[in-house]
Amino acid sequence: MTDDVHMTHALRLAARGLGNVWPNPAVGCVLVKDGLVVGRGWTQPGGRPHAEVRALQEAGPQAAGATAYVTLEPCAHHGKTPPCAEALIAARVARVVTALTDPDPRVSGKGHAMLRAAGIEVTEGVLTAAATALNAGFLKRVTRGLPLVTLKLAATLDGRIATATGESRWITGPVARRKVHALRMGHDAVMVGSGTALADDPDLTVRDLGADRQPVRIVLDRLLRQDPASRLGRTARQTPVWLLHGSSAPSDRRAAWEASGATLIEVAETQDGLDLTAALAALAGRGLTRLLSEGGSTLGAGLLRAGLVDELALFTGAALIGGDGHPTLGPLGLTALAQAPRPRLIESQVLGPDLYSLWSLV
Fold first, then answer.
1. What mean pLDDT comes out for the span 149-175?
2. At what angle do helices 2-15 and 51-59 cross, to 10 degrees?
3. Nearest by Cα to 279 from 158, 199, 209, 189
């Protein structure tokens, strides 16, 4: 069907905004007139301009009488920019085709209603499943107050992440590591636990891929044990660093990290450490929609136990370490096999000598 073809085009454009547009959704728009594409747009870094505005600018006068294919209902509220529904009306498009209704209560059907009231034909629900998957992070933040979480794990064929001495560089090869950077680029933030931060002194940036914006770098560090002189601390003014800590974090450590330019976020504690649900809710409250958790085994197990993982990105390195190595995950507290999470395979890819697989847990 013609509508499906043009909406597929719009969805591919929308995907270019993933990791770049939070707290806004990643939206694509294609304007078609007399069978020809006259304008294209996608949400720009930082969330503005919106996709519809970019497409209308490209189309110019040719937008009049065109059909607009938009992956999400055009906004209907005045924020930092005027409503996109008004822009489409002003451009005199003849028809608007959308994939999803925006669950944001400021929109939620109002954009469609505004278009219809102006005499524009509206068709809803084209490629809804694909659009839902694309903007799963935005939808989850709006409807549940949590970001989408992708848990990234890199392990040997026998499920080990390091030798008995803690050596872990490198379990996978350069092609797989480049894929990790691509994953980072498609997420709003990258998160690690304090153990990984202390052991690896990571940078957590996207390198060699021409990223427009860097992901926020997050450490869950209840007592703020990480040194402000670390890589994260030294670069906090250039690329955002957010530290989630508990009320028991020493005041001198708080002051030192604040002086580095990092953002400190206090969250509730449990007897096992930080309350992970509260931590993710705090991140969603600051606008994050897509979160990549990169380690380590304790944090990964905690997120799984709490039911907070949406996707599992597994990198399997062509190596064997043995039972004296460190396991991929910490304890999950299972007492029966029936309790084990059963992810569903979404895709797999050979990366040099290694294997990448993406699994869904929802």
1. 90
2. 110
3. 189
Kindly state the tokens that stand for 219. Answer: 């450490």
Furthest CA-CA distance within the chain:
70
DSSP for 30-51? EEEETTEEEEEEEPPGGG-S-H
**52, 86, 294, 311: the active-site residue:** 52
Q: Tell me if 99 sits within 8 A of 126, measured CB to CB.
A: yes
Q: What integer pLDDT is reported at residue 208 of this predicted model?
A: 82
12-66 pLDDT tens trace: 999 999 999 999 999 999 999 999 999 999 999 988 899 999 999 999 999 999 9
d(CA 204, CA 179): 14
Distance CA 189, CA 170 (A): 23
CB 40 within 8 A of CB 29: yes
Coil vs helix vs strand at 73: coil
263 is written with which tokens?
């953002």
Q: What is the pTM of this model?
A: 0.92
pLDDT at 209: 81
The amino acid occupying position 12 is R
Plot region of 186 (φ>0 → left; ψ -120 to 50 → alpha; else → beta)? alpha
Task: Quote the CA–CA distance of 14 and 71 in Å, as a whole number.
Answer: 7
Q: In what order do the strands lie in the sheet with 290-295?
A: 263-266, 241-245, 216-220, 189-193, 290-295, 148-156, 311-317, 354-360, 344-351
258 assigned to active site: no
pLDDT reading at 164 higher than 80: yes
- Summarize the confidence of residues 210-231 as an average pLDDT: 92
| Confidence bin at 80 (pLDDT 50/70/90) | low
Residue 349 in contact with residue 356, Cβ under 8 Å?
A: yes
The candidate with the shortest Cα–Cα distance to 187, out of 213, 221, 154, 209, is 213
